[in-house]
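Narrative progress, year one. The postdoctoral researcher (J.K.) led the effort to move from monomer predictions toward full complexes, under supervision of the PI. The following entry was the first complex the group processed end to end, covering 530 residues in total.
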Amino acid sequence: MTNDQVLKFVQISANALGLPADADRVSRVAAHFQRTAAMAQQLDQVDLPADLEIAEIYCPKPIAP
Amino acid sequence: MSLHNLSSTEITQGISNGIFSASEVLKSTLDRIEATDKKINAFTAKHVDRAIQKAKSVDALRASGASLPPLAGVPFAVKNLFDVQNQVTLAGSIVNRHHAPAKQDAFLVQQMTAAGAVLVGSLNMDEFAYGFTTENTHYGPCRNPHDTSRISGGSSGGSGAAVAAHQVPLTLGSDTNGSIRVPASLCGVWGLKPTFGRLSRRGTFPFVNSLDHLGGFANSLDGLATMYDALQSPDAIDPGCHVKKVESVLPTLQNGIKGFRIGVLNGFFEDNASPQAREVVAAAANALGVNAQVQWPDATLGRIAAFIITASEGGALHLDNLRHRIEEMEPLSVDRFMSGALQPAAWYIKAQRFRRLYRDKVNALFENWDILLAPATPVSATIIGTDWLEIQGQRLPSRAAMGLLTQPISFAGCPVVAAPMWPSSNHGLPLGIQIIAAPWREDLAFRVAKQLESIGISHLKEVEL
């Protein structure tokens, strides 16, 4: 996403959720969002099998009886 | 007689043997807090009347000749996201001030009280636990007792600093991505983040349901073990508490580490570590006689997934605050909360699905290893107000980077004892290590920690305040 696209996304999403979206705040939030988007892109490149379910209430390992 | 720097074991033995009373220990504790907290700012509330009553009840119990519980008369304090009866649970915020006072203590506060411990106060933290520095704008920064111009770490900064400043021997905190291990490292105290699902979270203000752990800090390893054993209990009411029984670590603490397969994490955990961080891990490995290098699976992706889940769940939790009270929120974290609230659902779901795969890879790793070692923080405590860190040529935002090395571990839910370590040329500042075990094997991490303590390499240091 370009800087302009991120700014627009933040502005529109904030409006959709009823969040304050003055220009200064949108700019600051967009900076955070863009960093996270770059990280999310790395995760997006990982192939996961379709039947892999979300972790839900996470249990790190079955407890031995 | 100075009582403020005793371990919890020394306190319980002294009370049991009639050398001093619980009330005398409490007075010494309150005097120490009064004398030092203007410089540290660890406490946001003191619960004096309640503490006096509890100390008196311990003294009465001893006078009756009855046997004393394991933490009888030991003062402790809690991060201010723990419910304390008749107190408003702030969670580091001012927006929570309009909430009703808690009707009862948090589950773990009840466990501590039942074990005889004396609650003396509530502690400073990053607002809603979203931070690694405790530079709280509303209540002031919590300062590092080893150098008050520096951060204490966070988000359980008050919990780490109060122990390091010898205000109390035990504290409780929470750890979502590193919030116990980071302040333990930067303040030079013992810390425990148990297995995800080990301890009940009931009666604490949440941050990220999928990742929140509770645990504690101590000025001695025996104290940390005694506290951990006292905190354990199944809790059918908390859906995130998986355990069905108590598995005490204190009875096995002295069993040694013969036959343990211990490795040192390389790759991500070296690449994001300062020379001082690598030095303390090498020193611990050398003291334990180990040199095997081990690759943690998908550490970068684990950290990313934890980051995304944290932002999404945290942002969603505080959507109403963001809508209606955004100007009252912490300036250092409010924009991150808002960014998280806007993240696409696909990012979050991918991260949660990835976590299942990640768990299997981490559990497979522990088929070959009992304990893995890594730094707890990339660097030692930074000056309050620091925005950027340089680590191995990378320029990183300091407030997020402090959790780089803890996030991949807690995302798998593994238990960690954070051990206090002291790099050789670091202006007297500590930098701790993580002693990491497979899920549900806190006992192994404690035994390795005991070995490091016995060798004399892991310990607290006095502070001048």
